[in-house]
Structures are given as structure tokens and as C-alpha cells.
Amino acid sequence: xxxxxxxxxxxxxxxxxxxxxxxxxxxxxxxxxxxxxxxxxxxxxxxxxxxxxxxxxxxxxxxx
Length: 64
What we know:
This protein has helices spanning 3-11, 15-32, 38-52. By secondary structure, the chain is mainly alpha-helical. The chain has a domain at 18-45. The radius of gyration is 13 Å and the shape is elongated.
């Protein structure tokens, strides 16, 4: 089992909190780098949220 699989298993049911943590970490990086890498940070945040499932809107589930 990979490290990402273990993290996903731990975060199961807490996707919203994981998303908030990703946002907070990205904001901290943007602050420390004075926004120099903000596009890269935003891309990383989006990819992490997709991995953890925190980018899903509970009111608008994905279509099959």
C-alpha cells in the first residue's frame, strides 16, 4: 500500500477538513513566497483536492 493510499484511508469521511488544510497550506506558501509561485501552488492545491476527494460539491454530485 502506497503512502497516498494510507493518507486517503485516514482522511475518508473528512474530505472537507482535508480541503481546508490544503487551502491553508497553499495560502501559507503564497504568503511566504509573496505570490511568486501562486499559479503552481493553485495547481498543486487542485490536484491534492482531487486526490483526497475534497473538491466534490455535496449539493451537486458528479454525473455518471
